[in-house]
Amino acid sequence: MGTIGLILGIAVLIYFAYKGVGALPLTLLAGAVVILTNQMDIWKSYSEFYLTGYVNFFKSYFLIFASSALYAKFMEDSGAAVAIGYKFIDWFGKKRAVLVVFLATAALTYGGISLFVVVFAIAPIIMLLFKEADIPRRLSLGALAAGSATFTMTSLPGTPQLTNVVPTKFLGTSLTAAPILSIIASVMLFIICYAYLRWEEKRLAAAGEHFSFPDGTDASMYEIDRSQLPSATTSFIPLVVIIGMIIGLKKVIVNSSALVVLAMVTASTLALILNWSRIKNKKDTVNKGLGGAIGAIASPCAVVAFGTLVQNAPAFKDIVQFVLSFDMNPYVTGTLSTAIISGITGSSSGGLTITLQTLSEQFVGSGANMSIMHRLIAIAAGSLDSLPHSSGLFLMISYLGLTHKDSYRFAGVTTVIVPTIVCIVCTIGVIMMGL
User: Fold this and answer.
1) Per-domain boundaries in the chain
2) Is the pLDDT of residue 175 over 90?
3) What's the Cα-to-Cα distance from 181 to each of 135, 147, 374, rounded to whole Å?
4) By the 8 A CB rule, do 279 and 78 touch?
5) pTM of the entire structure?
6) 375 alpha carbon, distance to own chain's centre
7) 3-state secondary structure 370-409
8) What are the angstrom distances between the C-alpha of 323 and each of 318, 351, 431?
């Protein structure tokens, strides 16, 4: 009954997310299903498990969200984001707006910028690019998710994203583990994702869909004459500073969160100074920027809180033990167990950690190549983790002014279906080659 209830709780969360229910009431409702079917103490489940997850995420990420949202607001109100968008159009043309978002997001995440920061950095630019190309805004979720949660998170050699870091701590591997396999997987992920996004772009255009701004957006910010905008060079400076500081100071400032906050605050300050005369109501910009951070962090906090509650349910432990008991080829055991647990927790790094805490010694003693194991389970972690209850997707969907119903399928294909296919193909290929 507990196992059925846990699955039902996740199903309730996904179903009502599609119905447009907010993350907080949604996770409280889904949590109630898990609590009652697992015969858990109601008060303890909410006051300890749920709130511990909520508070821990808030504590870990609020300063990142606040500094990132402030940066995004300065870039938007100054016209710098629009100037960058126009420069991308000059370089690549309006027809390549989807590719620009895909590659720009990939470049930022491969440079070490986390998904939670990339959303704020790219969103204002997305609005201009998609408006000029007249591409439905809902497709932007697919491009943003593909650029941040596929090959730069799991397979590109050397990526500093957490999903690629976790296996090194358990398997004794490096961030560049299995470079040939990594490159093959990355190329497959990129080509298939981009081909799909282009197909969707053409299909939506044929259906007569057009770009529209999110409710409450000041469209006039994106209608400014180009001669009134700041120069592209000036506009790029804060963004370049973010990338430069995160890459250049990562060995000096070991605390990655502190480094990100420092980079975002520095970039925000630069954006303000460089565009001092263009930001007319500075107090309003600061208030709206920081206020936006509160709204943006609420959804992922609630989803992570639900995940914490689920992980404390008796049925979760039973499912984990069942999944980890699979007696198959070690590569199959590794990828299958990682994918399933990542799917339940809605977290690639969380699924990897739980799997490796239990099976790492078994993997090491199996005779399998640990570098290949590292790469396969990292790719597997980046598949089912992006089901509709993923905290990262809740953030992207809410910040872009979208809903699960009108946009999730684009992310579902690029971050669930495509990585799953690539993982299966790579695993079969490795086994057939006897590696």
Assistant:
1) 2-432
2) no
3) 35, 19, 11
4) yes
5) 0.87
6) 19
7) HHHHHHHHHHHHCCHHHCCCCHHHHHHHHHCCCCHHHHHH
8) 9, 12, 20
